[in-house]
Amino acid sequence: MSLEDKVKATAKNIEGKIQETYGDVIGDPKNQAEGKAKQTEAKVKHTIENVKDEIKKAID
Q1: Is 48 in contact with 57 (CB distance < 8 Å)?
Q2: One digit per residue, pLDDT tens: the chain, 60 residues?
Q3: If DSSP codes are grouped into helix, strand and coil, which group holds residue 27?
Q4: Which residues contact 28 (CB under 8 A, 6 or more apart)?
């Protein structure tokens, strides 16, 4: 996983956590759900990139 991809995925995860927390604080289920979705998206990106890294290692 390139450093840039890691940073983007981590930033998306942090953004999601902040949005989810904001939704919790103000009692807004829409923000809570959107925040969780962003965290899931970031997790999926990390997983995909980790799989790519493992495949590349196996090939090399």
Answers
A1: no
A2: 578 888 999 999 999 999 999 999 999 999 999 999 999 999 999 999 889 889 989 998
A3: coil
A4: 22
